[in-house]
């Protein structure tokens, strides 16, 4: 997402519930873009360092991309204590649980960007359909 030139809308820390048996809360550095949400382990460097001859696949291996095209909803589960707990539901049905301090408003920011993304996609689809209809309806001149 960042490689495609998407600008960061919001950056900061979020806690993600792990999938394992213990379901521990793990801090992730998050970057919200117009295309989706990037989850980066907190110790991961923002840019691959040039002095390290690491293979190109390794630095991005732990970065998780939650693209809005694969996201169905963002459900605000509850506000408890200083945290807001919310779930991102992916198109294939996978649910990813997050929490953040209430004043950070991550759930609202993610929801807003997802809605704007889906609206842009719907507008593009309508334009594409109209262009196809106009092309088919246009009279073809003599050949």
Rounded mean pLDDT score: 84
In spatial order, strands of the major sheet run: 4-3-2-1-7-6-5
Q: Considering DSSP H and I runs of 4 or more, what fraction of the residues is helical? A: 25-40%
CATH fold title: PH-domain like
Structural class: alpha+beta
Shape: elongated
Distance between the termini: 46 Å
Low-pLDDT stretches are: 48-58
Helical run tally: 2
CATH architectural designation: Roll
Task: Give the CATH class.
Answer: Mainly Beta
CATH superfamily: Pleckstrin-homology domain (PH domain)/Phosphotyrosine-binding domain (PTB)
Report the β-strand fraction as a percent range: 35-45%
Succession of helices and strands:
EEEHEEEEH
Largest sheet: 7 strands, antiparallel
Evaluate the radius of gyration. 20 Å
Counting structural domains, the number is 1
What's the β-strand tally? Answer: 7
Description of the structure:
By secondary structure, the protein is an alpha+beta fold. It has a single domain, classed as Pleckstrin-homology domain (PH domain)/Phosphotyrosine-binding domain (PTB) (PH-domain like). The chain is 26% helix and 37% strand. It is built from two helices and seven strands. A seven-stranded antiparallel β-sheet has the order 4-3-2-1-7-6-5, with helices on one face. A hairpin with a 4-residue loop joins strand 6 and strand 7. The longest helix is centred in the C-terminal third of the chain and has 32 residues. The protein is elongated and about 65 Å long. The termini are far apart. About 8% of the residues have low confidence.
